[in-house]
TrEMBL record:
One of its GO terms (molecular function) is oxidoreductase activity. The keyword Nucleotide-binding does not apply. The keyword Glycosyltransferase does not apply. InterPro entries: KR_dom, NAD(P)-bd_dom_sf, SDR_fam. Belongs to the short-chain dehydrogenases/reductases (SDR) family. It comes from Cupriavidus taiwanensis. SUPFAM superfamilies: NAD(P)-binding Rossmann-fold domains (SSF51735). It comes from the Bacteria. Its EC number is 1.-.-.-. Keywords: Oxidoreductase, Plasmid. This is Putative short-chain dehydrogenase/reductase (SDR family). Residues 12-210 form the Ketoreductase domain. PANTHER family: OXIDOREDUCTASE, SHORT-CHAIN DEHYDROGENASE/REDUCTASE FAMILY (AFU_ORTHOLOGUE AFUA_5G02870), SHORT-CHAIN DEHYDROGENASE_REDUCTASE FAMILY PROTEIN.
Length: 265
């Protein structure tokens, strides 16, 4: 795609967690298209090799691993170490949460959401950093955050809180792990994926109404997030660390503007 032109990751190794679907799949394909060797992980192995992300005749390498399980995470990193002399980029993308109001959510659900979206990526990042610190070229770690960390997140409160924790961690890790390892985040707004449409957005009429609330007039596509990751992991962003790139099409129109009786547009 033309939006990915100018990025060359030939000879680089990239790990994308949750890289089989949605945003993660687009990120994996973008790095493949840019020449990288890409590893993706997920809890369930694909039934068909054609389900693995691919681009320009090259496919990602799938590793079955639940990042919440430290033994599985360590085994995954050991497998990557056997296949590649370096681990140059890690994109912490795995995550998500079902809709559940806090008053109705069980303690087990709240804990599970926070573990998947905050604890697990931090533990994996710690392990990846240990390897990257030993590499001559260091490395880059990117975290997929969310605008849910920056505004109220009704129905996904634990998710929003976990992502807020990730954004704070990004700023801290950028200090602790510098100068050899850069750390940054991307925070998507509404992204049109199969999962988000089924769990959170709804039918085509709802999608059109939601798009009308975005200044740029549409929901993000997974490739929009992938392009940002290509930039942040590239030499063009070599002085970017501790940053959070918000990708929300211009944000949300303040609700009070529609309720006010003056200055309406």
């Amino acid at each position: 795609m033309t939006g990915f032109a100018g990025f060359d990751y030939t000879g680089r190794t990239v790990l994308v967690t949750g890289g089989m679907r949605g945003i993660g799949r687009a990120i994996s394909a973008a790095f493949l298209r840019a020449g990288a060797q890409v590893f993706v992980c997920g809890r369930t192995a694909p039934t068909d090799n054609s389900d693995v992300p691919a681009a320009d005749g090259r496919s990602a390498h799938f590793i079955a691993a639940d990042i919440r399980d430290l033994e599985q995470a360590d085994a995954m990193l050991a497998q990557i170490a056997q296949a590649s002399p370096t681990l140059d980029v890690v994109v912490h993308n795995a995550g998500g949460a079902p809709f559940a109001l806090v008053a109705d959510a069980s303690p087990r659900l709240l804990e599970s959401v926070i573990r998947l979206n905050l604890v697990a990526p931090l533990q994996l990042a710690q392990r990846c950093n240990a390897r990257m610190q030993q590499q001559a070229g260091g490395g880059t770690q990117l975290f997929v955050g969310s605008v849910s960390a920056l505004r109220p997140s009704p129905g996904t409160a634990a998710y929003g809180a976990a992502k807020a924790g990730i954004l704070n961690a990004v700023r801290t890790l950028a200090v602790e792990w510098a100068p050899r390892v850069r750390v940054a985040a991307v925070s998507p707004g509404m992204v049109l994926t199969e999962t988000s449409q089924q769990q959170h957005y709804g039918d085509p009429a709802a999608l059109r109404s939601m798009a009308a609330t975005v200044p740029l007039g549409r929901l993000a596509l997974p490739d929009d997030i992938a392009a940002a990751c290509l930039f942040l992991a590239s030499p063009q962003a070599s002085y970017v660390s501790g940053a959070n790139l918000v990708i929300d099409g211009g944000g949300e129109r303040p609700a009070f503007l529609d309720a006010a009786s003056v200055n309406r547009t």
